Amino acid sequence: MDLKKEENPKDFLSTRETAKQLQVSLGTVQKMVETGELLAWKTRGGHRRILMSSLEQLLTRRRMGIRERCGNQFLLLCILRGEEQFEDFKKFVEPWESSVDLHLCHDTLEALMQSVSLSPDVIYLDWQISPVEQVHLLHYLQRNLHTRHIPTLVEAGFLKMHPQVTKIPPEIKEYPPNKEPKILTNAMIKGYKKDKLLLAKGELNLLYAHKMETLILDCLVQKCEEAGI
């Protein structure tokens, strides 16, 4: 099939863009092309172009599989600015296809304790929480081995302003005195683009709700794959 002729160039992604979407290495994307998991063609310069619809189909299969492997229900811990937002968020998750065990809190100290005791599948950190509280919470979540691997959704603009919160604190004792500790980035901290939960007259923001559920399912896919589930 001549993919180049049948599809518009804007419907293709580079190998690097595809790897970013899938949260995998460039080599893994190349193997997926070779095995037929992804459809692609090569430019005259020898660069692969991945068919967007092929990537979307793969992501859809992953999201369907996550429900089979990890169950239809997941526990979502939400840290919101105040109790008045609780009802709005409950309405926000109503149209989701997934069954959500929703736990809400508006205090970052409480959120930290619940993260340890509940071991949620995903943590949602609302963008309206003060930056200082967000930095402190993420710092402690990173340092705790039990919470470090929980996918945590953080507003993308905040992550851009505070990139240090994605860095995993090195364990100094693991390195010889003459070597610098290796700084690792936590791939489980994901950025989301903020939007309104409810539109005018209290109507649900269905498009945003769908995007958030999709992001959460993608996080669960990655979490299960890394755990070997």
TrEMBL record:
Pfam families associated with the record: HTH_17
GO MF annotation, one: DNA binding
Keywords: DNA-binding
Taxonomic superkingdom: Bacteria
InterPro entries registered for this protein in UniProt: DNA-bd_dom_put_sf, HTH_17, SinI_DNA-bd
Residues annotated as domain Helix-turn-helix: 12-63
Protein name: DNA-binding protein
